[in-house]
Amino acid sequence: MAADQAKVDPMKQFAIEAIGGTQGWEIAGFNIAFTNSAMWMLITTVVLFVFVLGGMKRELVPGRWQMMVETFTGFIDNMLEANIGKEGRKYVPYVFSLFMFILIANLIGLLPLGLVGIHPFTFTSHFTVTGVLAIISFSIVLIVGFWKHGLHFFSLFVPHGTPLPMVPVIAPIEFISFMVRPFSLALRLFVAMMAGHVLLKVLSSFVIDGTNAGAGFGALVGLPSFLLMIGISALEILVAGIQAYVFALLTSLYINDAEHLH
Amino acid sequence: MEVEAAKLVGAGLAAIGAGMAAIGVGNVFGSFLESALRNPGAADGQQGRLFIGFAAAELLGLLAFVVAMILIFVA
After folding, report:
1. What predicted TM-score, i.e. pTM, was given to this entire model?
2. How does residue A119 score in pLDDT terms, banded at 50, 70 and 90?
3. What crossing angle do the helices spanning A92-110 and A127-149 adopt, rounded to 10°?
4. Which value does ipTM take for this structure?
5. Quick check: B12 contacting A, CB < 8 Å?
């Protein structure tokens, strides 16, 4: 493997480790040990819970905290109403939880807690986690679609006004583009988060190796790389927000398809 | 050519895809800004479409990254 020569292994940050060993966690042949991934999911959930709880005092004149929570719920509410319409209101709890969970997970993974010896684990950089989130979104689309429209839901694959001779061509393409949705949804978030973290670690290896090679290399390679790292970190905060937003936005678009067909 | 070398060359070639996606993403935001400056009143209503276009263009660049990672670490 090519990456073995580098002193900083950019893939080590994604390693899943069981906290407290894997002994005695066997259920039906599967090991369900409590991992660092599960721990950071738990932390994210607790942070989200505390964040929303602080804004649920229902004061007539909202304080700062309530204002902050209401900004986020209002943002999701507006997005769903713009994309789905009045029926979209009932999906606010799900899309809000999804958006905030991904956003908080992305941001917690970027925290510089390594300085005090705790290494944050970005679980959204794992396809298993984002895949499950995407499957939840996709099954909501399927359930709502078949519940509301029955077998008429399949007319999703034949857009309005398609000429009859074109139907055998259009329908398979629409079917494939429909079935690819959960994969593209999951892949986008997972790769965007992983790519950013790998890039940061590769740049950090430039800084460390460059500085170890001598003061001249440190000034020539290490310093510019370090400045670039600061810039990339700022970009990563932007990407963390955008990816959470895109995930929620695409989920709302897919739910719109299920609610209204084409 | 050795298999290991071919893998690395392939992973490097996949970086072209990332660059192409950069052109695409730049195009999306550039066109949006251009039209938003012509008609600022309509700009806010189109932000959802802006990010859909961004997501579609970005996905293909990310796929190029996945191809590179598979070539280096999996294949």
Report:
1. 0.87
2. confident
3. 170
4. 0.80
5. no
